[in-house]
Amino acid sequence: MFLGKETIFLGENFRSKKDIFSFLAVQAEKQGWTEDAVALVEDLWRRENEYNTGFDGKIAMPHVKTANVKESGVIFIRLPKSMNWEGHDSGLIKLVCAIFIPVTGARRLHLHIINELMCLIIDDKFRKILLEAINSQEIFNFMKDRIMEIDAL
């Protein structure tokens, strides 16, 4: 599944971007989106080193399109407190929305997903719900109608 309750994490504590990337890769492996979490971490760093994925509004959107991904997916993390996203000009992030896309047949899909999620996340109402939701079910219910339609492409 492109997005599920099992890929929404609230209140996870991390010390660094490195810890988040490792967590994301392990979760992608658990979902069956990759068979190699170590290679996926390397892909995340390769992409991050090309251009930092932190954005204004305390949001980071690490994303990869790689042969190490077999199936598209999104992992959402809301941190309990803002943390430094190394290399990001405005520094602190509180929301992480990671996107995993396979190389084959995904060029348009990859760009469409990033564009759609960026449009949603810069929307004040959407971001407020992500920041204030009580549990992952509430976030899932809010996001499913907006993001699931992307999966149908």
What's the layout of helices and strands?
Elements: E1 8-10, H1 17-30, H2 37-50, E2 54-55, E3 59-60, E4 63-66, E5 73-84, E6 92-102, H3 107-122, H4 124-132, H5 136-151
Helix pairs in contact: 1-2
Compact summary:
This protein has five helices and six strands; from the N terminus they run βααβββββααα. With 153 residues, it is an alpha/beta fold.
Main attributes of the structure:
single chain, alpha/beta, six-stranded mixed β-sheet, 22% strand
- SS element count, helices: 5
Determine the N-to-C terminus distance: 13 Å
Strand content: 15-25%
Mean of pLDDT: 84
Overall, the morphology is: globular
The major beta sheet can be summarized as: 6 strands, mixed
Secondary-structure element order, N to C:
EHHEEEEEHHH
Share of helical residues: 40-55%
Oligomer: single chain
Estimated radius of gyration:
14 Å
Find the structural class using helix and strand composition. alpha/beta
Given as residue ranges, the uncertain stretches (5+ residues, pLDDT < 50) are none
Strands, count = 6
Description:
The chain is of the alpha/beta class and 153 residues long. Strands 1, 2, 3, 4, 5 and 6 form a 6-stranded mixed β-sheet that branches. A hairpin with a 3-residue loop joins strand 2 and strand 3. The chain is 45% helix and 22% strand. The protein contains 5 helices and 6 strands. Helix 1 (17-30) crosses helix 2 (37-50).
